[in-house]
Design a protein that fits this description.
heterodimer; A: alpha+beta; Heat Shock Protein 90; 5 strands; globular; B: alpha/beta; Transcription Regulator spoIIAA
Chain lengths: ~150, ~120
């Protein structure tokens, strides 16, 4: 079963995070996502949209965030686009997960979590248009009961 | 997210229901800060009905634990944040981020409250 891409575009402002998360609520219902995919799409949207609002449009002030989502019987694909500062999460520093856990910073955990929980994460910055595009894919887990 | 508070003789139990994300994290931070301000530093968070946690939620938990443990009665006894009934998907996040070695985690709220 394929689903058409579902798209939302919002201003890159704190107030929009709630609208994006409400959109995720709707996706969960309409796409009937399994638990692991539902968890990931919410995490992706919150962590990356928050980063875009915090950092991406520092100089521009009036940016936008586009979120689209498709799924079929094989995978869920989440695409987040913005027009702000380039940021490739594949090169984001690893958070410190060892040593003094009591006093360590939890910065970078959101990106780390998404990287660990997804199957594919790609980033592309189009120099000509200025668009950043993040694609996160989570494959549907194979059923273990032998059914299709 | 809904937070239900139950006070015991030595321990405060906060039962969390829903999602602990960027939108709701300030609500939990405020609830814990309120307990700290009234001198209550032994806190159990019951996560049985928690469906989601993000980095914003993890930040509240680690900050709260650090604050609670600064309050000491003796070298062996003092404040702490302990967790109960952690669902598997949230447990996976704790394992990935090393939080499961940071917090004392109990099977249920009764065990966690009794551990103080």
């Amino acid at each position: 079963m394929d689903h058409e891409a579902t798209v939302i575009e919002v201003p890159a402002q704190w107030a929009s995070i709630e609208a994006l998360l409400n959109f995720v609520d709707e996706l969960e219902r309409t796409l009937a996502l399994p638990d692991d995919q539902a968890y990931l799409v919410r995490l992706v949207v919150e962590e990356f949209a928050t980063n875009i609002v915090k950092y991406s449009y520092e100089q521009h002030k009036q940016g936008i965030i586009q979120l689209s989502c498709t799924c079929d019987e094989d995978e869920l694909r989440v695409i987040i686009r913005d027009h702000g500062q380039p940021f490739d999460p594949n090169y984001s520093p690893e958070p410190d997960l060892s040593g003094d856990v009591e006093n360590r910073s939890v910065g970078g955990l959101g990106v780390f979590l998404v990287r660990e929980m997804c199957d594919v994460l790609t980033y592309h910055h189009d120099r000509a248009s200025g668009w950043n595009e993040l694609v996160v894919i989570k494959k549907r887990q194979e059923r273990t009961d032998g059914s299709a | 997210m809904e937070i239900t508070h139950r006070q015991f003789h030595r321990v405060d139990l906060l039962s969390l229901s829903g999602r602990l994300d960027a939108a709701s994290a300030p609500q939990l931070r405020e609830a814990i800060e309120h307990l700290f301000h009234t001198g209550h530093y032994r806190i159990v968070l019951d996560m049985q009905h928690l469906a989601h946690i993000s980095s914003a939620g993890l930040r509240v938990l680690t900050d709260a634990r650090k604050r609670a443990r600064e309050w000491k009665i003796t070298d062996l006894e003092g404040g702490d944040i302990r967790l109960a009934s952690v669902p598997p998907n949230i447990g996976e996040v704790f394992n990935l981020t090393g939080m499961s070695s940071l917090f004392a985690i109990y099977e249920d709220a009764t065990a966690a409250v009794g551990s103080f």
